[in-house]
Design a protein that fits this description.
Chain lengths: 249, 249
Amino acid sequence: MNDFEVIYGKNSVLEALIAGNREINKIIISKNIHSDTKMNKIKDLAKEKGIIFQFVGRDKFIPYEEFNHQGVIAQISPIKYVELEDFIADNKSIYRSIVVLDGIEDSHNLGAIIRTCVCAGVDAIVIPSRRNVQVNSVVEKISAGAINHIPIIKVNSLVNAIQTLKENDWWIIATDASAKDNYYDVKYDDMNFAIIMGAEHAGVSKSLLKASDFIVKIPMQNNFNSLNVSNALSAIIFETLRQKLTNKK
Amino acid sequence: MNDFEVIYGKNSVLEALIAGNREINKIIISKNIHSDTKMNKIKDLAKEKGIIFQFVGRDKFIPYEEFNHQGVIAQISPIKYVELEDFIADNKSIYRSIVVLDGIEDSHNLGAIIRTCVCAGVDAIVIPSRRNVQVNSVVEKISAGAINHIPIIKVNSLVNAIQTLKENDWWIIATDASAKDNYYDVKYDDMNFAIIMGAEHAGVSKSLLKASDFIVKIPMQNNFNSLNVSNALSAIIFETLRQKLTNKK
């Protein structure tokens, strides 16, 4: 298990198998779980790809008790991060979108954000290598395997990454509670854009706000200014998709 | 502590104090936590309202170890559910919105949905008294206290509730992955409407789909049809708010 990490749960394992872009060393399935459609798909795909799967007793799952493993875990190579420059070079032809995360601390939030991004067709997620939760097995589980379907770009400096994006004609949109414009006032369907979402408490850093082309807010009702970051992202990112899909028609 | 339950975390306690619609028996604060803006507000409001607060040692928090209590818990009366008929009678004059939850199983999802609804100005949430997670202290915590700012209507039968709403000129919108229309194809700004969100796995029940006026989907990208229910709701409910706010102008 040297270079492998453990992922757990049916969706995590199934989506890793479907994506097929990571090396799976072994899949371990509990003898005490009765099979269902997803579990059967896992077994079929594993067979097809020549990946070992073992049926084991309850005791083998004891180390993973605190996780909601649903009777299946896999030993898998870590995700491969993508370089920002490579991503930019590969995505020159049509309008693309990126989500940039500035200091997200909570694994559940990162997992939910990844899942939302894949469903909404976001093309990549940028995270900083420090002061942000990294991809771990909780993130993989909460993402329901979505992590395997979107490039994750890890950078040392978000300020530099934003600068690089701007030099390549990407537009930068940051979210901030004190913004004048609402998120739906921006026209998203004719540009490459990166949306910066801030930390749960601190919001987007000043240096990034300063570097942004647009700063937008979600118009909060009931004087209750405390939307969870993944839910805030969902509102914004599906508005960008709405614009793209309705203007295509 | 007979009729009281325990809520924990700074936001939960603070928002309960601000809302002021539940009886707080006592607030217990850890001696080992250094105070911050929110904690000071909690103490100020408690003093103002004549609510007892006690500083206690670490041992008093041992029963709550598994919770992210942030050094503060409160003994509080349970939330008061609202009757559907009363809500309808009180909301006759302007266009209102309700979110109806059909079989949500996860406390985190219910908490996130409540928080999103308050931020988006939803007027009430309807939950069934069975086959749905009920309001508990995890829900209160995850809602960040939002639970105190929105009526929760608990009904024995969702089918009957939908029927009652329809008889009172409410329009019913259900979400279903196989719908033809997208959620943004509906015009939400000139009617009372209820949006039904289904269980994490099973979706909205057939009987409710049948009773609905509109069935809508979120157009999923990447062939990845697995958006978390609170994120799905966020996309839809903020679209209804966008329509209301932009058509007002």
